[in-house]
Amino acid sequence: MGLFSKEACTFCGKEVGIMHRSKLKTKEFICSDCRNKTNPFARMDYTTRDAAQKMMEQLPQDAEWLQSELKRLEAERTSRFVVQDDRDYDLGSKRVNYKCVHALGVFQLYYSSLSHYQYSPVLYFDRILPYQFESDMDSTFFADSRRAEIMDKDAEFVKVNVSKDAEGKITSCEVVIPYQDNCIHEIKISDNVDSEEQCRPFYDLAAQINKDRRICIEQYMDDILRKERMQVRNLGDTAAAAVKAAVTGGDVQEAVKQGVETASDIEEGKVKQGFFGKLFKKK
Ligand SMILES: [Zn+2]
Predict the structure, then answer these.
(1) Is the pLDDT of residue 144 over 60?
(2) How much distance in Å is there from the Cα of 153 to the middle of ligand 1?
(3) Is residue 226 part of a domain?
(4) Cα of 37 to ligand 1 centre, how many Å?
(5) Higher pLDDT, 1 or 195
(6) Is residue 6 part of a domain?
(7) What is the Å distance from ligand 1's center to 108 Cα?
(8) 115 and 172 share one domain
(9) Which pLDDT band holds residue 283 (cuts at 50, 70, 90)?
(10) How far is residue 247's CA from residue 250's CA, in Å, rounded to a whole number?
(11) Measured by CB atoms within 10 angstroms of the end CB, which terminus of the chain is less buried, N or C?
């Protein structure tokens, strides 16, 4: 192997030189074209071949899911509700677009240096926490063991780092979002800046993400309470229907079956099951 040798991409088989490939954690090579179908925030040296493959399948599905959920939310809510929050931040020379949907617990970050990637990935507020290795097998157990961190609504996990030179002059600034994903670990957006003033938008974005995370947790708790109230009411309705069926010689089993169906409809909800969902899953 030399600097000029070509290697085959493990996904598409294309032979590519060193400038157009990355090495995966599992030592295979991935070409730039295939990499552009993965998550722009993933580091290839953290990513196994299987994980890269899964990302390529998951990203388009996530994008489609987000679009259909946004349509559903727009249709359900009156216009005075802001379904999607959308803001731009000038982080040094980067104009970063930040979108979030509280009702879905998701956000997106986009700026022009990511434009060669096919998808702006759907990111989850319940995954903003200091990274720990998570095996594919035990994500419910994992969520449970980190419940206190995941549900800590006052935690300000998103931070800003400012770098200075030997004379104490500001040289660069970065937003750091810790992220619970084996392929990502943390999302960093950094750029050169030369004054406190230019660091301000970095702090603004970090504060906004921390705030939106808190709103999502509060909303999730509300949703759980609302579902519980609905279940209690459904239980009463089902019992009443069953008693009525018994008294009038109707179909008791059918009345109970309908109650059970309603109960699972209530549980299903629409929020994609992330850590928030796992924490409250009925045993
Ligand atoms: Zn390839």
Answers:
(1) yes
(2) 41
(3) yes
(4) 10
(5) 195
(6) no
(7) 25
(8) yes
(9) very low
(10) 8
(11) C
Higher per-residue confidence, 172 vs 238: 172
| Residues bordering ligand 1, an ion, CB closer than 5 Å | 9, 11-12, 31, 34
Domain end, chosen from 184, 217, 250, is at 217
Query: Pseudo-torsion of CA 17, 1, 40, 279, nearest 10°?
Result: 160
Residue 248's Cβ-side half-sphere holds a number of Cα atoms within 13 Å equal to 9
CA 32 to ligand 1 center in whole angstroms: 7
Angle at alpha carbon of residue 204, lines to 202 and 210, rounded to 5°: 105
Give the domain extent around 267: 219-279
3-class secondary-structure state, position 96 = strand
**Ligand 1 centroid vs 4 CA: distance in angstroms?**
18
Statement to judge: residues 194 and 243 lie in one domain: no
Q: Which residues lie closer than 8 Å to 241 by C-beta, 6 or more apart?
A: 255, 258, 259
CA–centroid distance, residue 36 to ligand 1 (Å): 9
Look at residue 50 and tell me if it is in a domain: no
pTM of the shown model: 0.83
> Could you tell me the distance, in angstroms and rounded to a whole number, from the CA of residue 65 to the centre of ligand 1?
26
Backbone phi, psi, residue 21, to 5° = -145, 160
Domain count for the chain: 2
CA-wise closest residue to 125 among 149, 103, 105, 139: 105
CA 11 to centroid of ligand 1, rounded, Å: 5
pLDDT level of residue 282 (50, 70, 90 thresholds) = very low
What is the C-alpha separation between 205 and 201, in angstroms, rounded?
6
Task: Report the alpha-carbon angle 267-270-271, nearest 5.
Answer: 100
Residue 24 CA, ligand 1 centroid: distance in Å: 12
Is the residue at 104 inside a domain?
Answer: yes
